[in-house]
Amino acid sequence: MNQIDNSLIEQVVQGVIAQLNGLDDNTIPLELSNRHVHLSEKDSLELFGSPLSRKQDLSQPGQYLCNERLRIIGPKGVIDNVAILGPTREESQVELSLTDARKLGMDLPIRQSGDIQGTPGIVLSSGKKIIAIDKGVIVAGRHIHMSPADAKRFGVTDRQIVCVHMQGKRPAIFNDVLIRVHKDFKLAMHIDFDEANGCGCDTSAKCQIVTAATGAICAN
Ligand SMILES: [Zn+2]
After folding, report:
1. Domain containing 120: what range?
2. Distance 32 CA to ligand 1 centre (A)
3. DSSP string, 47-102
4. Ligand 1 mean position to 113 CA, how many Å?
5. What is the whole-number distance in angstroms between the Cα of residue 143 and the centre of ligand 1?
């Protein structure tokens, strides 16, 4: 009898914890990425003459928004006041939406962050200094960050492609969402504003993995 009581209590406690954590329905928190730049240490020093300064922490541990901003200059247009995210990286990378690409007059590939081989370059201006990077401009592929524990809970593995039901004002299923597993990742789905607007989603939208349909593993 005692044992039954304990397991019942355990079930109730787990249910309450899951509800408190918002995990009772396997919903994935949605975060929207605006256009931004990651700079190499060399490029940041060249543009600003001093190390980047932290303005505010982002949701993924260790990532932050910098006080510095950049103008990005494409063949047919300019976008001002573009955010820079720290810390510095091995190579500079510019993440834009397809709408931004159109404005700049650029034909951009959809790539996952860090996969910049063969991508177009761009001109960056800090106001004091202008530099050109010869590659690194991408439209970021949809992805979900999660910890190994979350991956186990959702039954998925690192680099797997899944389908996600976006329950916004214009419900849609994204069928090409990359799972990225790391012990430091906090559960979050990342899409850009074009994609969010396309399915009428803001950060309150419910997103759920509906199937690992293709079973495909990303080549990157
Ligand atoms: Zn991300």
Report:
1. 34-140
2. 9
3. HHSS---EEEE-SSTT-EEEEEEEEEE-SS-EEEEEEEEEEEESS-EEE--HHHHH
4. 8
5. 6
